[in-house]
Amino acid sequence: MIEKNPRPGTFDLVLSWLLVGSILPRALPFHWSDPFIAEESRLRQMALKTYARFEVQLLAIFYWILHRPFMVNRWIRKALYYGLAKFFAEMAIVSKVMTLQETEKFILEELPENSQIAVGSCRCRLATHACDHPLETDIVILTGTPLWLDLFPKDYRLISKEEALRKVRECNETGLVHMLDRHMYYKGSTNYFVICNCCSCACLPIIGYKLFKVDGYHYIPSTYISVVDSDACEGCGQCVEICAFEERVVRGSKVRVLDCQGCGQCVRVCPNSANRMVPR
After folding, report:
1. pLDDT tens-digit profile of 137-186?
2. Cα-flanking dihedrals φ and ψ of residue 170, to 5°?
3. Where are the domains of the chain?
């Protein structure tokens, strides 16, 4: 059974944590910023737990805003981007798109053997009800695991590395995109807390990317990008349809890659093996 989110308190509490955790570290030398960005920082973990408590409500608000008619106005869009989305994308909750192989390697080799992993309902799909993709796809890791288990014990459950691997493989087969998220990203910090399996229907980071990319919205650059073998490509468009980021087009009778974000779904669906992933 999916547990209802804890009843929200004042929205100012969330905003205060965001301000403390984002503005001050930028003004401090790296080692002085440890209380705000270090992996084991109690202050950072308190901020992450506060975010988790209000996450679904915040995502629902953002989804509603991003789908309002006024978002076609470029000045309103820019104001929202620089006033809010830029902070979330570049520091607060920062994503890196990964291929299935990268995600498997991360789970197997980079997660400590004794670390706990839990899976629960995708927060974006809970907030938006925008699609019928699988719901149990939110894989919390490292410092994220005890926080989400504490807040949502009836929704999240502990799983093994083997089940986490099965989960990401199942998600990949349904066309979902793997994203490794960090909290309080600052000068290369690696505060990993969740592996998301995202769709273009409900995922706020993907919706935000498509809306704000002209203004500079970006993820941590992926390790790999897709290239097309023009001799093998028949322009069927299957890779265009599967691209959650809308970064592929058919020009003439061939597919052209725009700004690939590195998920690798195009390789999976191409019937002619015309796509391959290469280091960025």
Report:
1. 999 999 999 999 999 999 999 999 999 999 999 999 999 999 999 998 87
2. -65, -40
3. 11-215, 224-279
Strand order across the 136-141 sheet: 93-98, 177-183, 192-198, 136-141, 117-121, 157-159
- Tokens 């309080």 map to which residue? 184
- Three-class secondary structure of residue 19 per DSSP: helix
Please spell the DSSP secondary structure of 180-199, one letter per residue. Answer: EEEES--TT---EEEEEEE-
Nearest-CA neighbor of 264 among 252, 247, 135, 253?
247
Measured between alpha carbons, how far is 28 from 11 in angstroms, rounded to an integer?
27
- pTM over 0.90? The answer is no
E strand intervals along the chain:
93-98, 117-121, 136-141, 157-159, 177-183, 192-198, 224-228, 248-251, 254-257, 275-279
Provide the residue type at 104 as one letter: E
| Other CB atoms within 10 A of residue 231 CB | 8
CA distance 66 to 72: 10
Strands 254-257 and 248-251: antiparallel
In the CATH hierarchy, which top-level class contains the domain 224-279?
Answer: alpha beta
Asked if 156 and 135 count as a contact pair (C-beta separation under 8 A), the reply is no
Q: What is the pLDDT of residue 29?
A: 53
- Residue pair 257/248 in contact (Cβ under 8 Å)? The answer is yes
Beta bridge partners of 67: none
Q: Six-digit token pair at 254?
A: 């061939």
Nearest to 183 by CA among 96, 118, 57, 75: 96
Separation between Cα atoms, residue 182 and residue 185, nearest integer Å: 6
